[in-house]
Every structure is written in structure tokens, then in C-alpha cells.
Amino acid sequence: MFGVEQTIETISNFGHSGFIAPGGTMNVYLGVLLGFIWVGGVISWSMQRLEKA
């Protein structure tokens, strides 16, 4: 999901206002939220892998 959001964000250079506009809600809030969830998932996954090793 994070990768999809980042892909959409990459093409959000078009437009001046709205949800997908540069500096819009998606770029500022949704991207950060999904990024934190993704990083948390990677950390959780790697901690489990380290405990098994």
C-alpha cells in the first residue's frame, strides 16, 4: 500500500489544489501515516527474524 501511495505521489506534480496536489493532504498526511506503518512492519518483521537466529 505504501508503494502504491508513493507512486501516486510521484505523479502528483499536476494540479494546484486538492488531495493529490503537491503539498496536498495525500503528500503531507497520508504518506507519513503509511510510511510509519510500513517502517513499523519492517521493524516488527526484522525483530522476529533476529529472535529466531
Key attributes of the depicted protein:
elongated, 53 residues, 0% strand, mainly alpha
Strand content: under 5%
Q: Overall pLDDT, averaged?
A: 83
What would you call the shape? elongated
Number of helices: 2
Low-confidence stretches: none
By secondary-structure content and strand pairing, the structural class works out as mainly alpha
The radius of gyration is 15 Å
- Helix fraction, binned, reads 55-70%
Could you give a short account of the major beta sheet? none
- C-alpha termini separation: 29 Å
- Taken in chain order, the helices and strands follow as HH
Strands, total number: 0
Verbal overview:
Helix content is 70%, strand content 0%. The protein is built from 2 helices and no strands. Helix 1 runs antiparallel to helix 2. The protein is elongated. The mean pLDDT is 83.
Give a quick summary of the entry.
Helix content is 70%, strand content 0%.
Describe the secondary structure blueprint for this structure.
Layout: H1 2-10, H2 25-52
